[in-house]
Amino acid sequence: MPGPPRLPELVVDVLADPRSRPVILLRVALFTSLYVAVALVALMSVTEDTQLSPVWPSSGVAAFWILTSSRASRPYDLTALAVAAAVAAFAPSDGDAAMVAVRAGAALVMALLFRRLVDRWTVLRRPDGRLRRLTRLGTVGKVAAAALLAGLAQTSLIELGLVLFDDPDRLAYFHRWGRNSIAIFVVVLTAVLVLGAVAPPPNGDVAEAAPEPARRSVGASAGARLRARSDELAALVVFTAAVFALTFGAFPELPMAFVLFLPSAWAGIRFSPPVAAVHGLLTGSVAVVLTLAGVGVYAQVDDPFLRAFLAQAFLCVVFATTVVISLIRNQLLTAERHAQSRTRLLDSVVRAVGDGLLLVEEDGRIVLMNRAGHELLGVQDRPGYIGPLTPGEFFEGDGKEVSEDRRFYVRAFAGDEAQGEDMILRSPDGGVDRVLRVSAQLMDVEPGTPRQVLLSWHDVTAERAHSAALASFAGEVAHDLKNPLAVVEGWSEMLASELEGTEPLDSAEGLAMTRRIQGAAAHMRTLIGELLTYTLARDHELRPERIELAQLAEPVAEINRQSAADAGQGVAHIEVDCPHVVWGDPVLLRQLLDNLVGNSVKYVVEGVQPHVCIRSRLVDGLVEVSVTDNGLGVPVADRERIFESFYRLDRPGYSGTGLGLAICARIVERHGSHLVVGDGPDGVGSTFSFRLPTP
Ligand code: ADP
């Protein structure tokens, strides 16, 4: 069950799109009483000499009433308006039934025409009948035009009635048109503005144009601002009263009405459109009432029609001026807020960009530099920093220092914009040089402002290092494949020429040549196989799981015992002492252990029985795995380089590709550790070790 409606919602329901019968009746009762009450007050001001009410605000009430009537409430609204208009027309028509009917009908035609025109010319009314918040200046003009036309229609109908049933009066005709149109314009605009402020429709699409962005401050500062606003409003009220006292009270005979525009200008410049509209309406109405009471500058005009008309024209102009100034102020504020939020957005984008960005003027002054730019160039990060562009030591791609006229921004100002050129930034403290890919673009700036170039740079040091490593790797692969291929070619040529020769080929000799060819082919196969493993170790998706180390190491030990026996090395002692459980990729870790144990068995002095130990222990919460052997050991000078691809120690009689340890190092790195080599137990042989996480 929905709770009772809150006041703003109830106001919206009553004023627009009422659906339920009680709300419709409440609305009809409210508008009818308002219309009749306002009409009675206006009728009290009828003067002897004119027999015509000088003001007629009921027209405004009727126009707003029908403007906000919905499909459901319209029959009730129109009927009630007809009755209310007839009641109000009774006295002015001297009880003449025909004239009462004409006046009531004219009120209905006016209200319906006004609504039709507003719908045609503006987007004030939403399809569901509710009103949008008025923000556009043009709408004020369109509402004024609709009010003039609707007032004209109403007045003309009454005039026609007077021609038919009574006595027409040309002056009264124009006066009636003026007072009715002004009433429609002023009442409808005030109601629309105030309603839009106190009770905007609940869902989106509340304003004519794009909704205003949220105001910045909330909480305490918003409260303080509100207090300051109400203080200023009180000051405005006092000032307005003082100006009225001066112009209407102290010097009523002086034509000082223009002074009354001062408080209006204040209200328009400093307050929102609803407040400005209410101020305009009240000040204008006070002027009208005082004039009707015979006080003030307009009261001196003899002609009663002219007197009333001048006072109302004054009301209309004061009101329109105040509202228009306030709407312009609102538009400016909205535009300013939009601009500020766009600037903030742009600022955060520039700050967040990972590339260095720098805006520079022709004399080398930095207008803007983002954080990435500061970090890369090492310039102090000071907000609003402006200083001459003095880059550290910049070198072009070919190693030459960047000369003054070759600077990217200088070239860009000269019309030579760089699109991704490499530049080397030499580190002042002897650290790693950085390679930057720089672009420079001349900015499109307002004529008359200093020209600017946007420099952007991307740190491609890692990319360049990677492609250099890749190129050298490819070179080494090609080189290592060429050797066995040359062997294959050489021996097969030799074999062919022997076979072509006149001498019959000795079978032992032929066999020896074929063996050499087979050996080279086998070496190529191993090399290609290891290359594949190497790429796998680098790029294969890591699928870590819980592994019992012993279960991984035992089969590795067994296979290597077997291959040692096959290679004629006799019995290889391979111990496994791995009681720990680790978290890693089983395929890659098996490859790792296999390579390490294989090397340990292979690199021993000829005739020495290999003795290998695979151990694990807990160190700092990680499992340290080590493979020790009694082999040749690795000289201290080579302990870094043996992990590079294709790096081999010069050891005649031991074949290999130089990729095995590179594969091992990759696998260990991908598990978050480093593979290291040291001496073996008692200084004999070597120890390879690394760490693995536990599950
Ligand atoms: P490969 O064994 O195919 O030559 P590796 O990358 O596995 O390539 O090894 C690189 C070099 O490191 C080898 O040439 C070898 O001399 C040396 N080496 C590797 N493991 C050992 C070890 N356990 N004992 C002594 N030297 C080793």
What's the quick description here?
This protein has 695 residues and is of the alpha+beta class. It contains 18 helices and 13 strands. The site of adenosine-5'-diphosphate has 20 residues, from helix 17 and helix 18.
Enumerate how many helices there are, as a single number: 18
* Strand segment tally: 13
Q: Report the end-to-end length measured between terminal Cα atoms.
A: 55 Å
**Estimated radius of gyration:** 48 Å
Low-confidence stretches: 210-219, 381-392
- Report helical residue fraction: 55-70%
Given helix and strand content, the structural type is alpha+beta
- Report the biggest beta sheet as strand number plus sense, adding barrel if it closes: 6 strands, antiparallel
Amount of beta strand: 5-15%
Ligand inventory reads: adenosine-5'-diphosphate
Q: How would you state the average pLDDT, rounded?
A: 85
Overall 3D shape? elongated
Enumerate the strands of the largest sheet in spatial order, edge to edge or round the barrel: 2-1-6-5-4-3
Describe this structure in words.
The chain is an alpha+beta fold and 695 residues long. The chain is 55% helix and 11% strand. The protein has 18 helices and 13 strands. The strands form three sheets. It has a six-stranded antiparallel β-sheet with strand order 2-1-6-5-4-3. Strand 10 (611-619) and strand 11 (622-628) form a beta hairpin. The radius of gyration is 48 Å and the shape is elongated. The relative contact order is 0.05. Adenosine-5'-diphosphate (ADP) binds next to helix 17 and helix 18.
